[in-house]
Design goal:
The protein has 191 residues and is α/β, with parallel strands linked by helices. It is 23% helix and 19% strand.
């Protein structure tokens, strides 16, 4: 069933600029939670994930979306103009409920790490889960992030992804109106 077509950003220019700044700051300061607003997407898409798509995705960035997002595909296609990437390896952006298998996405190469996929992971909450300690570039001291909905072996999965550096997958975690970024450079361990 396709959701009814609703509006995108209330103020497309200012809202997309604010969201872009939040994503940029999130990548520069991993684990910091940002609130983004200005859009009410169709279910099951949360506001933060919708805002990220409206800000970053366009007709040149194929999107792979988990089947859970089928009701919102028409809304995403209309507002973002993204081509569908049936094969995750061809996706520039991916949208998933929970963490998908990162091995299926393009990690980029040592010569062109910027060609890797960015995965937007929709979670129930960015707080209240098992705490993770983040260290690395952009962090003077370690930071704790406690999202709900990541798999129990997330630290192992992330260590494998980080080992591909300078290639690797970047994550944008979204829940409700909140987002936090995990660039491939950040080291993550259980706190």
């Amino acid at each position: 069933m396709t959701a009814p077509l609703t509006a995108g950003f209330a103020d497309p220019v200012l809202d997309s600029q604010r969201c872009f700044r939040s994503v940029l700051d999130g990548m520069a300061r991993p684990g910091r939670i940002h609130t983004v607003s200005g859009v009410i997407p169709p279910a099951p898409l949360c506001s933060a994930a919708a805002a990220v798509l409206l800000t970053l995705a366009d007709h040149e960035t194929p999107l792979w979306a988990h089947a859970d997002f089928a009701p919102a595909r028409g809304w995403i296609a209309f507002h973002c103009g993204v081509p569908d990437a049936a094969d995750p390896a061809r996706a520039v952006f991916a949208l998933s409920m929970g963490l998908p298998d990162l091995a299926g996405f393009n990690p980029g190469t040592h010569e062109a790490p910027e060609t890797s996929a960015t995965v937007i992971v929709q979670l129930p909450s960015l707080t209240g889960g098992a705490p993770l300690r983040l260290r690395g570039p952009g962090l003077r001291d370690s930071v704790l992030l406690a999202p709900i909905g990541l798999p129990a072996d997330f630290v192992i999965v992330w260590r494998r992804n980080r080992g591909l550096f300078p290639a690797g997958i970047d994550l944008i975690l979204c829940a409700g109106e909140e987002l936090a970024a995990l660039p491939r450079t950040v080291a993550i361990e259980e706190a």
